[in-house]
Every structure is written in C-alpha cells, then in structure tokens.
C-alpha cells in the first residue's frame, strides 16, 4: 500500500478513526519509518488515543496529545507540538481528526502548511453500520460538511463498516455496494477496507486493499467490563 | 432477525426516544451526555420534531413541563451537575402529576467534579430528585441495548403512571459503542390524555396543570393518593436480573457499568470454585427488595459494587433487613474498579469475611 508523509483520518464520529490511526501508525512503523501520531480530537471525552500512549511508546511511536485528554478538564485544546509535526517534516505523521464537521474544524489551522508541502493523504473513514451514515446520501452530507469545515479535500475513502466484535465477513462483503457507490459519487478511490484481523482470512481475495486491524477497540476492549457481548439482556 | 447498528449509548437513548414517540427534546450541553443533544439536533428537524438548546438546564426542564402539560411525550438529558439544576423542575412535574423523561449520564461529583464516569447520583435519583414527598421511576441500563430498551420503557411507564421517569446511566454507558437492535417504532402516544391542557372545545371544564394546592387538606390527600400509586408501581414494575444465583453463597448487588465488571469477576471467582452470583437491579426505584430478601435466606453475605461511597448499600441493608453482612467495593471520582479488585473482595468474603 502506498503512503504519504502525512495521513489524516477524518469522518463521522464513531466511524473508527482513532482505531485506524493507531493501526496505520503501527503499519508505517513496520515499514521501518519514524512515526508520530497526533490526536486532534476536540470532541470525544473518553476512549482517546491517549489510552494507547504506553503501548505506542513501547513500539517506538511518538504521541502528540492534549495535556487535558483523559483528565477531568473538558477543554478542547490543541497541543503546540502538532505544528512541529506538520511543518517539521522530520517524521511520518498520522493525524487523528475529531468527528464530524465540528471535530474537523480544528484541522483548518494546519491546512495551509499541509497544502504547501503537498505530501498528504486525507482519508474519509466510513462505517455503514452507524445510524447516521447508513445511507450513501447521509454519508455524503457528512463528507461535504467535513470538507467545508476543514477546507481540505479528501483524497480517498476507508471502508471501515463494522458492528464491533459482532461483525461477520458477510457484513463486510455486504458493505461493498455502499462503499463503491460512495466512491463513484465522490470520484475518490477506496484506499482500503479495514477489518478486524480475525475476519481477514475469510475476506482475502474477495476484497481489494484489505487492511487487517491488529489492534482493536482502542484498548478500551481491554478495560474492565467493556467487552462486547458479555451481557445478554 | 432485525438489522443491527453500531451505536454510542447516548445515541441509542436519542434514537430510542424518537422511536418511542418522543418528538420534543430540550437540553443544554454537558459532558459526557452531549451526544444525546447532538443526535436530536440532527434528527428532530428531519422528522418534524422539536430540538431546542435552552439557555440553561432550568429552562430546559421547564420547557419539558410545558410540553408535558399538553400530554405529549417530551424529554431532557444532562449529566450530574445539570441534573441538580433540574431538580426544582422535576419536583414541579411530580407535583403536577406530569409524565416526562429525564436522562442523567452521571459523572464524578460533588460540585463540578469531573467528566469521567460515576454512579454518585443514586441518592438524588432514588429519593425523589427535588423537594417534597415524591418518587421518579429510575432505570439503570447496563448495555447500549438496554440504553435503547429502557428509554422506551421509561417513557411509556411515565405516561402510564403520570410521573417523571429517569434513565440513570453513567458516563461509560453513554460513551461506549455496541451493536444495537433498535426497538420497533411506536404509534405516537400522548394524543388522548383527558387531563391534558389542550383546549376544552367548549365541551368540558378546564384542565388546570399546577403543583400549587391552596387547601392543605386537599394537598395531603393528593400526597397520599400519589403514594398509593407508588405502592402499585412497587408491586408491578420492579425489574432485575439474576446471574449465577442458583447455588450462590455470596451475592453481588450492582447496576450499570459495575454490574458488567462484577460479571467478569464472578466468572473468574467461579473458576476458583467460589460460589458467587449477582442480582442486578434494572429499576433502582422501585428497588427490587423482594428478590434480595429471598436471597438473604440462602447466601452467607452480600457485596455491593458501586461507583459511589455506598449509596445503594443502604437500600440493600434495608431490603434484606440486615439479615446478612453487606460488604462494599467502590471507586469514586471518575475511577472504575478492575474485575480483579472485585475478585479480591469476593475472595476475602469467601475466606470468612473481613
């Protein structure tokens, strides 16, 4: 899979951006590249990149994250180090943008520098199983709202359609029509279809540019009491 | 099987309320429940409903009072500090015998506290949130699916009994994502309420919606009547879930996110041969005292697991009439216990108490 110096993941909130950003960072690191993840999320109070800080460090990946992330202070602040990543060009950057247009708004201030360097990929992450992006029409309006908010056009689509741990290979196969239509309506390529690692063998060969996610659920799956499916109510 | 969607707990509340027939939402943003309002803001205009961001929590609850007076389903949502502000309005709703849904996605307190999860509004919710003698129905969901299901149930029971209902979730339940099978869409209800202030058509006397009662004799009667209704509810509407109680010697009592953690601990303890089970209250008012009292005859001890300093422990000891010792496992301030912490408590109890 080809890559640029900066990879930005944006989309509807809850579409899987943070998880993808982490997995993409690991993948870049596996190519032997110096990698930094930047958390631009000013929307989500819980389940943030910060949860993975120690694990990222162990793998030699730096994290730029708000000093207030995961604290009790609800302040939508952006860390100054993001400028060093965007303008410094010393290492590969993975930017985890906040959800929807409100989250993408925060990206706008870095756009002139990103455009000037012109070595980036701006990916639109979609999950067709989310209630407000189930139809192509609804998804396209989110797409347009984000582009308007951050003034950086998308360059590709990531089909991340899933139902968490309940996802089946059939769910992923069924989402192809949705992703293909999005692709033709926006004129953008499907950069990858991301799936949980356990689903990859069943889908290998049926789907182009399959991207198996080796780390899942943003570590909150490992936090106590949050495993899916324990409670059968 | 119905199609599933992947939802945040807060979104599930909003969508379920819409499916249950609610078309009027009034709120004011506060973490960790803002997604309820954000979802309503996106959806309500598309379906001819009302989303209104009020100037304050107090304004929002009084707008709910206004819609409720017309008999139409309406709701508001907030997190702990915002619920404190709404308490006056909730008391007025109770005093005027008006149905409404209030959602509390709890965070750490007291005061502004923090934005991380908590269950420290247990007392506030179960003792009648506001001044005066009254109760609200209180539901404690423990999954995103239950966030959806109990929202619908809360709305319908609120209308059935003409009283406010509260969905008492914690920040984790609001923020976590799980697949949900959305409930069926209900026929709009609240269209035929003989008590509602919707115009007399010159055919009947005026309906007056008010919590002020000039005669103390009549006010006393109204309070007593209300408690007769509460007694009916305590008899009919208690909900709970029992897990591995068949041979349990230790009974965990826990609700919401801590019930899920406890469940993990029970699986681990059972693997060590410790006979432990759980009674999970789904309604916190009415409190499922009956199954707990029945369990008191069978188990050696109880373990209350909560994200507060032991607020439900009081209700538990009352329910079992202090027949067996009750231990407490808690974390507060936005912290959550690990299942190992709960397991340690279980082990200590199994070894002969602490």
Offer a concise description of the structure.
With 233 residues, chain A is of the alpha/beta class.
Tell me, what is the CATH class of chain A?
Alpha Beta
CA-based gyration radius of chain B = 21 Å
The biggest chain-chain interface is: A-B, 30 and 45 residues
Low-confidence segments of chain A, given as residue ranges, are: 218-233
Q: Write out the strand line-up for the largest beta sheet of chain A, numbering strands in chain order.
A: 3-2-4-1-5-6-7-8
**Helix and strand string of chain B, N-terminal first?**
EHEHEHEHEHEHEHEHEEHEEHEHEH
Q: Say what the CATH topology of the largest domain in chain B is.
A: Rossmann fold
Kindly report how far apart the N and C termini of chain B lie: 48 Å
Number of domains of chain A: 1
What is the fourth-level CATH superfamily of the largest domain in chain B? Thiamin diphosphate (ThDP)-binding fold, Pyr/PP domains
Mean pLDDT of chain A: 89
The CATH architecture classification of chain A is 3-Layer(aba) Sandwich
- Please give the largest β-sheet of chain B: 7 strands, mixed
Distance between the termini of chain A: 42 Å
What does this 3D model show about the protein?
The complex is a heterodimer of chains A (233) and B (354). Chain A has 233 residues and is of the alpha/beta class. Helix content of chain A is 33%, strand content 18%. An 8-stranded parallel β-sheet of chain A has the order 3-2-4-1-5-6-7-8, sandwiched between helices. The longest helix of chain A is centred in the middle third of the chain and has 15 residues, at 136-150. Chain B has 2 domains: 4-200 and 223-236, 3-Layer(aba) Sandwich (Rossmann fold), CATH 3.40.50.970; 241-350, Rossmann fold (3-Layer(aba) Sandwich). The interface between A and B is large, with 30 and 45 residues.
